[in-house]
Amino acid sequence: MNGHDEPKITEKALLDFCVNNEDLNKLESLINAFNPLKVLRVSDYEIRHSNILAWLLDPNSHHGLGDTLFKNILLEILRSGAQDGILRKGDGFPSIEDVINSDFNDLQVLREWRNVDVFAISPSNNLLFVVENKVDSSESDDQLTKYTEIVEKIYPDILDIPGIPDKKYKRVFVFLTLDGTAPEKNDKFIPFSHGQIYKIVRSTVELRKDYMHAKVYDFIQQYLLILEEKTMQNKEFVTLCENLYREHKDAIEAILEHGKPRLTSDYIKDFHDNTNTTSVHMDRPMVKKSYTFIPTDWVRIVPTNSGYSGEKYLVFLNLDFSAYEKHKIVLSLVIGYFPDQGERQSFIKKVNEEAGDGKSAKFPLKADAKNTTVFRKDVSLKEGEAEDSDSKKSSAVIKKLIEAYKDFVKKPEFEVVDKVVKGFGFKDAGK
Prior knowledge:
The protein is 43% helix and 18% strand.
């Protein structure tokens, strides 16, 4: 097969995939079925998922579920936590027997309490229930630790109040994601999935529907349809996706490879002009997955390594666009591969020494890796910004990146590395 044949094969595969494809038409029909919650973009925003979840958990909301749904979800979380080894005797979790025999009608459910997605407290049961809800975003640096510290400070294990019996709080921290991924940075949070939420809500609502208003029941059904799509619970939907991928793999992979939104280098130039940074590759017309750059005042200090994964500086910053279509860009500071491993170890040692005064919990760094991410920041975009068809939207993305970078360089992690870079004395500086 020569280079001229490949585009024809790809074009034929695309035509077979797009033209009169019955499975594709069925899939589009399922995806585009009218759902008022889709019109309101509930499926795209964590804040709206959290609003509905808080409403469902609240026994005093007008949904006819009382405290039944909260109890069912709490019981499944405790069971799941016990299986994962997170719940251990004496750790202050409520027992399953306690939950079954308790009344949670005094449960107070709050949104964005101290930035916590969902916070609930039952004074009569001395229970605290904390949910960090992630739909399309990932775990943020130290976010979960911050929440546990806030909760434990405001609601300590024992309240020592004269004349009042000691009150020992039982705390349940939940990390809610689409697939039940466990958090990397805090083992107090029990991992739980939206798929599990879907199953519990569906079964609870079916058992309680005779006590519910018809409009409330319909509303919850529409929300369940959104969770079906998000968590792949709809068997017809999953089967169609599997069939389409199996029969049109080449076309789908071509779309994934070449169809992702991109920013032009003109917009990246605006980014550099407003941040006093420069790129390793300024001649690329499009930015697809990853973009490497450094502060301008590092240019004659930090050498490049042209023999490893293309030309890269030994210490650089990176814009990762791999999640661009999901409305997120990742900005990170990276210590890359050094041709001289001894020099890399010396550089890492100086970074760790400079950070030895407790400036950042990110240190100490290990010297034996090829690439070490010192610090990263997720830049969240609004719906529709991750498109290059509208220059105004692309400009909005660059503006957001400029703001994020200016905040990024004020972080202690960057300041530590910046100081070491400027005083290190690289072997091949100025090349």
